[in-house]
C-alpha cells in the first residue's frame, strides 16, 4: 500500500461526540486529539515506513479512532531517514498542523534530532516510532521524549554470546552502516562477543551505499568464521544480493532489521544466502504467544490485498508498541492534555503495557523501554522464508544488565567505539 503525503491527512473516528453543556472547558475537552505521525516514506527505509503506517492505521481503526472520549486525528508526515529532514517535518507538524503528540521517527539519527527538538517544546510530547540509537535516551535524555520500543543495543542481547558459545565462532567480520543505529547494534553484539574473547574486523559503509563488491571481496578472503551484517532497507538488500553473487558462503549473523519481512519479501538471490541466518531483535515472524498470533492474524486480514507483508515488519511493530504507550496514558488521564500535558507525561512514564509480541514493556528513569529480546533463525516453512524465535532474553534493560555508571563509562557507540572491550 502506498501512502500519499498531503499537508493534512486525518483519520477520523465514526463515533459522535457525547452531548454536554457548551461551556468552554467542555468544548476544549471534546476537541480531537491531534496525533502527528512521522516515518520514512522516502529513501532506503520507505517500505518499513509504509508498514509502520499500515500497523498504526489498523490499531486506530480498531478503537474507532477514539480514546478517553475524544477522537484522534492522525496527521501523517514523511521523512527520508535524514536528521535535518525529520526535524523540518516535525516542526511542520508542531507549528503548522498544531499536533498535540508526535509518534516517530523511524531511523536512529532522526531520533536523536527529535529528542533534541523535544526539549524546546512546552505542552507537546514526542513518543518514538522505531528509531533505535541508544544515545537518544541513554545520554542527555529529554523529559518530553519517550520510547516504548527497545533500542538497537538491546536488540542484540544474547546474540554475541550465542555466536561465541553455541556456534563456536571465534572471529567475525562485521559490515554495518556508518550512522547512529548500526553503531548501537554493533556495540551490543561486540560487547558480548569481544568480552568472551572473540575477534572482530569491522567494515563501515555510508547510508545509501549500493556497491559492496570491494568490501565483500575482503570479507571472503578473511579468516572470519561468520559475517555479521548490520544494514537495512535497500542497503541490506544490496549487500546480500552482491554477497550471494560473489559466492559468499560464510555463516551469516543479522542485525535486527536484516531479519525482517522488508528484506524477505523482496525476490532475488539474497534469499538463498539468508536461509539459516541467526539474528536478534524485538520481533520474529513466528513467536509462540497468543497476543502475537492475534496481531498477525488481524494484520493479514486488514492488509492482505493492500500491499501488506506476510507478517508485520519490525518498524510496524515498534510504532504500534509506542502507540500503545500513548493510548494507555490517554486512557489514564481520560484524554485530558491540559496543564502542558504534565499529567499525560506522568502517565506515560508510569505506563506498563504489553507489546504486540506479548512481551511486557515498562520504562526506566530515562523513559526508555525495558522488554524482551528474541533470538531468531530464518527458516523455510511451506515454501516461504520466515523468522522463527527460538529463545528470548527477558526484560532486557538499556545497559544490558550492567550498572548504568559502568555502562556509560564505555562511551557512546560510534565507528571508533564499536564495543570491543576486553573483560
Structure at a glance:
This protein has 15 helices and 15 strands.
3D architecture notes:
- Residues 1-29 have low confidence and may be disordered.
- With 423 residues, this protein is an alpha/beta fold.
- The chain is globular.
- The chain contains 15 helices and 15 strands.
- The strands form 2 sheets. Strands 7, 8, 9, 10, 11, 12, 13, 14 and 15 form a 9-stranded mixed sheet that branches.
- The relative contact order is 0.14.
- A hairpin with a 2-residue loop joins β14 and β15.
- 37% of the residues lie in helices and 21% in strands.
Q: What brief labels describe this structure?
A:
about 425 residues; nine-stranded mixed beta sheet; six-stranded mixed beta sheet; 15 helices; about 35% helix; disordered N terminus
List the helices and strands and how they pair.
Elements: H1 24-30, E1 33-40, H2 46-62, E2 66-67, E3 70-79, H3 83-95, E4 101-103, H4 108-118, E5 125-127, H5 135-138, E6 145-146, H6 159-166, E7 171-177, H7 180-195, E8 199-205, H8 213-221, E9 226-230, H9 233-245, E10 252-254, H10 261-264, H11 270-274, E11 278-281, H12 290-303, H13 314-332, H14 342-350, E12 352-354, E13 360-363, E14 369-381, E15 384-396, H15 404-409
Helix pairs in contact: 2-13, 3-4, 6-7, 13-14
- Pattern of helices and strands: HEHEEHEHEHEHEHEHEHEHHEHHHEEEEH
Largest sheet: 9 strands, mixed
Structural class: alpha/beta
Shape: globular
* Number of helical regions: 15
